[in-house]
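User: I'm curious whether this sequence folds into something compact or stays loose and floppy. Could you predict its structure so I can see for myself?
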Amino acid sequence: MIPSLALVLLGQQTMKPAPEFIGGQWLNTAAPITIASRSGKITLVHFWTFACINCKHNLPAVQRLSDTFQKRGVQVVSIHTPELPSERDFNNVQKAVKQYGIKYPVLFDPENKNWRAWNNEYWPTLYVVDKHGRVRGSWVGEMNFNGHNGEGEVSQLVTKLLAEK
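Assistant: Here's the prediction. I'll summarize afterward.
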């Protein structure tokens, strides 16, 4: 069961460095992306899987966040972590990325290495990583489910973090 929907903000004492991305099969990028290479920029890390209905419902919101902030250096990095056997096939992931019109980078995580490194528990989850590579907040579940404004809350956090040094 997914916990109640809300943006979880992390205070100074609880901020942790974002784990480095693990794995080698990427879509929509010429070279692998690293947390270290994102230094000085905000990164949105989106865990999802293509057969999950909640994940599918989140894709438009994640794309809007990408479209809104990419000119300001914010990058969405999507981590596809499969739940079902068919989702472990890279060709199926490629087809889903194309079908859903995903333009931002997607890291294929068939062995759940990133899932474990990030201590992730649910699909979908979106993490907000600040300019210093620290996880500053997260949203679990559909961002705009049942009148929630997760997309707006994430957007406000990103705007705040862009203003920080």
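Summary: The beta strands are 7-9, 16-17, 26-27, 43-48, 75-80, 106-108, 125-129, 134-140. Residues 61 and 91 are 25 Å apart (CA to CA).
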